[in-house]
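Hi R.,

As promised, here are both runs. First protein below:
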Amino acid sequence: MLKNVSVTDDGRTVELVWNDDHRARFHAVWLRDNALDDKTRSPGNGQRLITILDIPADTNIAQAAVVNGDLSVRFAPENKTVSFPSAWLRANAYDRARTAELGWIGEGVAPWDKQTMQNSVPRSSYTAATHDPAVLKGWLSAVRTYGFAVMDGLPTESGSLCRIVDLFGYVRETNYGRWFEVRAEVNPNNLAFTNLGLQAHTDNPYRDPVPTLQILACLENTVEGGESSVVDGFAVAKALQRENPEAFRLLSSWPARFEYAGTSDVRLRSKRPMIELGPDGQMLAIRFNNRSLAPAVDVPFEDMPAYYAAYRRFAELIEDPRFEVTFKLEPGQAFIVDNTRVMHARKEFSGTGKRWLQGCYTDKDGLLSTLAAIEETRKEAAE
């Protein structure tokens, strides 16, 4: 709860003090734009009902007070009074110390390697996740935190992997179809459809936007080899940064180009850095796929040798066993990866026996939305 408020800078800002002596300042125009009253935001969906042009340019705070632990503000020249919950203000405070480090990782994301994850792979039962919101919450939360998770007990029927997507979102159909087969083929249009081993990679970096989640489900597996593995791209990128900050800067500053032309009617192209950072330096995404990497033409001539050295070292770290978590999918098992962070790979497998997997794409917005809805429902129930 708040214990004190003071208006500063001729009403253009306000300084708040909470009971634990935490302090934060807010601008009048920010508070007015984010007012929570039913004239500013729709009570039904929370969407804003006004535009920035509806807010007077000379908006200021005529009066501010702590009322029952929350903030009450009267704005001028509108003479409008609005209440702000103290917890909401604390959660949305922007007056805080900023990290100067490039590549910082957002809250709730936990980098991992083989040592920390090999014996604690997050997993859940499909049946339990279907019937128990708490189990589903745990599984979705693991994907948010670690970027991957395994699900057991899936029906071994063609297309059953879409049932996992139905738990939280929608299948993203592509030129490969609603789902695609992952098994050895004659003259395949993608090297994934062979028995060759595949380097750890993110899928479809040639799309814009890239599918943000991928699911691979096993229907049959009697081959020798063919183990699946996952690598946390954020953990590898941080390792590269610690070892060689300049290499990290090059891979995050200059875009790589990716292309795919598997059939005559498909020409997919995109241009993004292998390590993508936000304007504030936050690490947002990893794109790494040697099979679809196109010629780099955006890197300056004088930087190209160092860029390729950085690319080589990044690839070496990605293949370093200390970052690799390995498991073999059995029929009825599936795993999901955050395709903007976690790379997946496959070991080479024998030409005898059968290995039949199916894959599909979906997106994180649905997963994070479902998870947030479950969390808020459980929080409200607890209150």
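And here is the second one, sequence first, then its structure tokens:
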Amino acid sequence: MSAHPLLSAPSAEVKSKIASTYDAIATEYNAWTASHHAFRLQYLNRLVPQLSAIDNSRILELGAGAGDPGTVLLATLPAAHIIANDISGAQLSLLKARLAAEISAGKVEARQGDMMDLEFAAGELDAVVGLYSILHLPREEQGELLRRVGSWVRAGGWLLVNFGGKESEGSVQMGWLESKEEGKESQNAMYWSSWSPEESKRLVEEAGFRIEVAEIGGKEGSDADFLWVLAQKVG
């Protein structure tokens, strides 16, 4: 069986397909992932107490999706400003509807686009959260993103991310989460990649963070483990 052409495609093409696929399956994805909210909340609830005493905190959420449960929980922090980034316009439209009051109040800001195109000043952010999102980047971009995040987060700030739990140069699944229609071939495709857990941890540390939590958990299906990392910026 030949390799899927997306595995050798330029990064922009990969991301365009990810965006269009998430747009197409937004409803199915959000229904499916609701059963996994406990995994996210388990780690988000380790981060939130670290941020609750910070006035006017600025938090970047990479891959915010429709806002549940991450943005919703982060928006409960006092005087917090959450920048909710996602590559899918359909998902962010759902987030805007879900968090209309918080957006109107200035607590939440939705930014659509590739996370690699984001720019922030050095030390501008108090925390960055990226759950089930960085693993959509080609592997060579993951380390570069973490280096940028290390610049954006102030000394003493926080990083909460997860990565694939085993090494993969890249994988593609056609028709992911779609209802199968007989005789119809799906045009949607999802892409993931990951370093080994040891390398992912090394990249986090190289970006200037001290790892407080690093553990494998959050199994989804028969072969999808994740490395969850909570780390504090050294300064």
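A quick note on the second one: The longest strand covers residues 153-164. Let me know what you think.

Best,
J.
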